[in-house]
Amino acid sequence: xxxxxxxxxxxxxxxxxxxxxxxxxxxxxxxxxxxxxxxxxxxxxxxxxxxxxxxxxxxxxxxxxxxxxxxxxxxxxxxxxxxxxxxxxxxxxxxxxxxxxxxxxxxxxxxxxxxxxxxxxxxxxxxxxxxxxxxxxxxxx
Length: 141
Description:
141 residues, 3-stranded mixed sheet, OsmC/Ohr_fam, Organic hydroperoxide resistance protein OhrB, OHR, KH_dom-like_a/b
């Protein structure tokens, strides 16, 4: 489900120069990084790449969603971490993205952790945005 512009609470603004082999910066100056394709894709690997930036955003957003779900379920997720593995590869249309979200939640049993991450996947804005577009696998570490 999408939102209307009038419902937006915050808008991030980033500008890229020279695509995957250049620079990305935000309008507030908080992020200014060199981007370069990884060696596996013919680049030097000297800078970060869009997949790393996407993994950073997705993992942070998913951790936030996990916190919301945990509060509703009264589950203790202190000390938890969420890691996003973002892969890019060729598909029939050119290139596609694959994501694996791995959560470590030390204070709950494995079944509860699995339930929490599945519920977080339903409320995380990144998960909602990518649902049906890319493969996202969930795992408990």
